[in-house]
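[Meeting: bench + compute handoff]

Bench side (C.D.) handed over the final construct sequence. Compute side (W.E.) agreed to return the predicted structure before the next meeting so the bench team could plan truncations. Sequence as handed over:
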Amino acid sequence: MTYRCATGRKIEKDKNVQEAVSTLSKQGLDVKGLICHVSKAEDRKRLFEVARKSGGLDILVSNAAVNPEAASVLDCSESSWDKIFAVNVKAAFLLAKEALPLLGQTGFQPFDLLGAYSVSKAALFGLTKAAAIQLAPDNITVNAVAPGISKNKIFRRVDIHRKCKEEVLSRVDTPHDISGAVAFLASDDAAYANRRERCYR
């Protein structure tokens, strides 16, 4: 049963990747897609091998995240804590470290029920600042985008309607809001932006 479930998830992920590739290809873009579990070394190796064959990397967007349980930070189970930091922090560090050779070629408010998740994201602020200082001499900028509540699986346990009333714009983030910020930071217009955290609340 466990094998079938794991296989089913892999098939679903592969379908999502292929659909994304198809959509972008129809827009005239040269796109490659593959499944990458960022906490697995073999998956990251395969990802960067594809990037290497494609000529290297101009931009690394590290946006994978998990939150397996809803609990205050000190109520978080050890297994969930380990998974959250393995994916949200350690994998982000390893992705940046392993991407560096290819790159060479070419204000945070935590939520109570997302305690450990919020801690992991705060850790990424420190990683962003430290990496930005180290890579600045190589003309590589490092920035972070920190959205507020968004409509996705991680926040499915949060009362979206109640949170909307607390937001200045009376709505939650959309994928377009977040991707727009990423696109800006990846553009020449943000060439002087470094060690920045763009927060959306």
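W.E. noted at the follow-up: Residues 1-6 have pLDDT under 50 and may be disordered. C.D. will use this when planning the next construct.
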